[in-house]
Amino acid sequence: MSNIAKTVVACVAFMALVLGLVFHRIVSPAVLSNAQLAENGLFVYDLPRPVSAFALTDHEGVPFTQERLRGKWSLLFFGYTFCPDICPITLATIRQFDQLLQEADPEAAAELQVAMISVDPQRDTAEKLDAYMGYFDEDYIGVTGQYIDIFNLGRQLNVAFGYTPAENGEYLVNHSGEIVLINPDGEFHGFFKIPHDPEKMLRNFRSVLATW
Questions:
Q1: Which member of 7, 11, 12, 131 has the greatest number of CB atoms within 10 A?
Q2: In terms of DSSP bridges, do strands 73-79 and 112-118 run parallel, antiparallel, or are they unpaired?
Q3: What CA–CA distance (Å, rounded) separates 14 from 79?
Q4: Does one domain contain both 38 and 20?
């Protein structure tokens, strides 16, 4: 092989290496520090917090316990089907984030579960939760149970809620709007702060996955 041919081969190999590195940087998620994540909307604990045992029920009547949070990443949102604004907006945002994740990392999207824990167990029957969650995604889980069990789980996850009387004997439920992030060990990993942005959620979540 002539010197010119060797030079051309070397240049092509070098260019392929550079392009490979560039492509890797494009498709690989940026790894952010916890401080950068917080600035971008996701608070992550330095040490994930354990979640004590709880016993709730999903919209299909199947027990929803701590074991359901193991083996995959979970997004938990505390809301209710009669919510006039923040709940449908938040679930729609989660759906947008989910779709972006499916495009960027289908494998990670397949290992993510989404559940709304009802803060209105008196009105949110399994049937209502089934229909409501189906508006956003058939795989999303609606969860209900006894008030005290929901309250105790919310307290573990720094979620507060309370009731405000409305007209005609009805009531509204005031509740936190954060989206709780549970890691595959079933631990409280952090939470997405409001306001939620699907693209920022994607960037933050992929960063967390890259360092898990």
A1: 131
A2: parallel
A3: 54
A4: no
